[in-house]
Amino acid sequence: RSYEINIIINFNRPKEFIYRRLAQAILEDILGSDVSSRKRQTVQYNDNFSHTCINTANIESYIEQISASLNKSSQQFENTKNSFFDVLNNSSVSYNNLTNQQQNLEFFSKLVNSYTQLTNDKSSSITKLFKTLDENSFPRWQTNMEMVHINGSDVGGFSCVSFIDCLQSAFDALFFIIQDTPLPQAKSIEQTLTAAKESFLWLGYNENYTFHQAHTILSQVMEILSDLKGLEYWCSDPPQIIEQPPAEVNISIGDTLELSCKASSNLPLKYLWRRNSMLLSSRSNTLSVKNIQRSEGGNYSCSVTSDSGIATSLPTIVNVYYQPILNLSLVNSVETFEGYDNGLNLACDAHSWPPPGWRWFYRATNTDEWTDIVDVDANVLSLDKPKLSDEGWYTCMAYNWIGNVSSEPTYLTVLPASVARIEYSMSIRFTPDFDISLAAGIDFNRSDYKQMVADTIHNSLQLTSTQIQDVELIIEKNFNITISFKLMTPHVQYIAYDSIQEVFSKVGDLVIQLQLDRNNLISLTSEDGGIVMSISGLNFHSVGNSLSISPRVFVCPNGYQVDSSLVICVGCAPGYYGNVLVDQLTDLGNGQFMEEQIPQCLECPIGMYQNDKGEAECKQCPDYYSTADIGASSLEECTALCQPNTYSDTGMEPCTQCPPTHYQTEYGSSEC
Predict the structure, then answer these.
(1) Which of 194, 234, 351, 592 is the most buried (most CB within 10 A)?
(2) Please, where are the H alpha helices in 90-210?
(3) Does the structure show a pLDDT above 60 at 629?
(4) Helix-helix angle 163-180:138-148, to 10 degrees
(5) Where are the beta strands (DSSP E) in 296-403?
(6) pTM of the model
(7) What gap in Å lies between CA 614 and CA 597, rounded to an integer?
(8) Residues 624-630: what's their mean pLDDT?
(9) Residue 44 — pLDDT band, cuts 50, 70, 90?
(10) What is the tens place of the pLDDT at every residue in 350-373?
(11) Nearest Cα residue to 412 out of 434, 435, 389
């Protein structure tokens, strides 16, 4: 059969201890805890010392109680014996004539018949003495001890139910304690106890024992207990840290760390060192870490162990000084536009000990000297509402007293910005209300006539903010006139407002008014004569439903594009140009869409570049030069083309001569 048991075993203990623990656990598991009258209490190893110390004291106390009881009975016996001798001195019987067995008092009662010749009063006295001697004899003491143990007891961690059983328990408990003591002196104590085993157990059942013999064996056992206590093992306290390592150590990288701690104990000590709970190699009360690195900083502690327990020192915080190391550097380049409400944050990050301080530097061009940006001592540089003058190179420096490190520089491009205007291109047909002969010789394209037309439409719509610009007149035969113009929001000064949100609000109001004016114009021109105008005294009226309206257009300066808000115009970045309108449909909800045109910047095509911002066109590379890709932002990106009779995969230098029997007459060829 097989059995499964759960038991905690400390394999650092002597093998006899391990065998005994295993055997005991198996027996208790198979037979049950109540089968045997003697059950040794078991404790976990962490509490083993305190329990063993208590058990040793319990055994000693038990032996002292036996000795005290024995002493009392022995003294009473001696007193009675002396009284008996006094009686014998007046009788014809000599004590020396008694046999050894009789002298042991077991058969004192038989002597009564030998004293019948004594007088009645002496006979009565002797009878009483015999009775007293019998009551105080050694066998009677053994009987009394059995009565004391009738309800059971506990000795040294063992339960017992009789005097003899308790003597056995005391011996077993003491034997196990001595056997578990891992000191060389314990072996001789164990041998002494083993030699005294039989004599000790006879205290419980050998009726021929004398009090003197009992005293002798109990003294021997007490001496064994004294020798065991003299080893100062089981009742030793756990180690005590008497010299703590320092609470904090600051050390430079590459130096040697020296730590020490000291403990006191009656038992041999073992030292262990840990860093952040990781066990280190040192096994003495000193720790030396040579050429310390930053990864070796942290919490250090010293643990001291003995057989009786463990003590751990207070932690030592070791700070390893090292110069800053960047773990977040700047990107190569970044763009923003002037006045951007959210500003711009340039961020670096570094780790070091002590923690790093920060400095930021700026230069406008590569040839300028770096200048310190004052009043910035954090790892983030914030530019609120960037200005065009903020454009340039930036770098951060992390430093401490050990050293410093600087990031790769980043180039900040600040693009110019303005407010977009929204416009509609419109045209309306007008027909004359006069004899056309009267119009002969009139120049209708005079600028003052155009202004008159603009004023007429302005007044007809009762415009407040919306403007009319770019008026043109096309004269048809019979003096029918088509008037084209732009209905648009007024120009808004970008720098006149404290925030972009204010700009958004202003432009939003203007766009709403523009839409109202547009719808009003549609209604006004839905019938003939909705608008009447006069040019040089001649009247014209609008033709009903002749109004033509283009898609809504967001207007930016040349070289600009509208940003995602459709409010701010931002200059094209280097490598781009801006003179293209892109069509898009804006969802108005309820299944309605509005056709719009927005300006957008495009990358310079191959063979061209643009090194400035806010430009409407790109620059052409010099003759026989080109770029490898679109979006070139400097003349340096223009590379010489392969000359005739040479070629390359890209058509640009470096080039290879055409092989024999091959030729090429063109520049920039990829084959011959």
Answers:
(1) 234
(2) 100-103, 120-135, 138-148, 163-180, 185-195, 197-202
(3) yes
(4) 80
(5) 298-306, 309-312, 316-328, 333-337, 344-347, 349-353, 357-363, 371-372, 380-383, 392-399
(6) 0.61
(7) 19
(8) 94
(9) very low
(10) 999 899 999 999 999 999 999 999
(11) 389
pLDDT at residue 119 greater than cutoff 50:
no
Q: Are 103 and 94 in contact (CB under 8 A)?
A: no
Residues 6+ apart with CB under 8 A from 247: 314, 315, 316, 317
The H or E element that residue 483 is part of is strand 481-488
Asked which of 33-42, 159-168, 330-339, 591-600 is least confident by mean pLDDT, the reply is: 33-42
First to last CA, the chain: 93
Peptide bond into 354 cis (omega under 30): yes
Distance from C-alpha of 582 to C-alpha of 618, rounded to nearest angstrom: 19
Q: Is the dihedral of CA 227, 230, 235, 239 positive or negative?
A: negative
Nearest Cα to Cα of residue 457 among 477, 478, 427 = 427
| Rounded distance between C-alpha atoms, residue 560 and residue 613, angstroms | 9
> 240 has which bridge partners?
264
Residue 48: C-alpha distances to residues 56, 123, 567 (Å): 12, 62, 83
Q: Helix 163-180 to helix 48-89 angle, to the nearest 10 degrees? A: 130
Look up residue 522 and give its two tokens: 């549609």
Q: What is the residue type of 498?
A: D
Residues 555, 499: Cα–Cα separation, whole Å: 21
Tens digit of pLDDT for each residue in 534-546?
988 899 999 999 9
- Band of pLDDT at residue 132, cut at 50, 70 and 90: low
37: helix, strand or coil: coil
Residue 646 has φ and ψ, to the nearest 5°, of: -135, 165
Q: Give the pair of three-digit tokens for residue 419.
A: 């407010």
Taking phi over 0 as left and psi of -120 to 50 as alpha, with beta for the rest, 563 belongs to: beta
- pLDDT of 108 > 50? The answer is no
Distance CA 641, CA 638 (A): 9
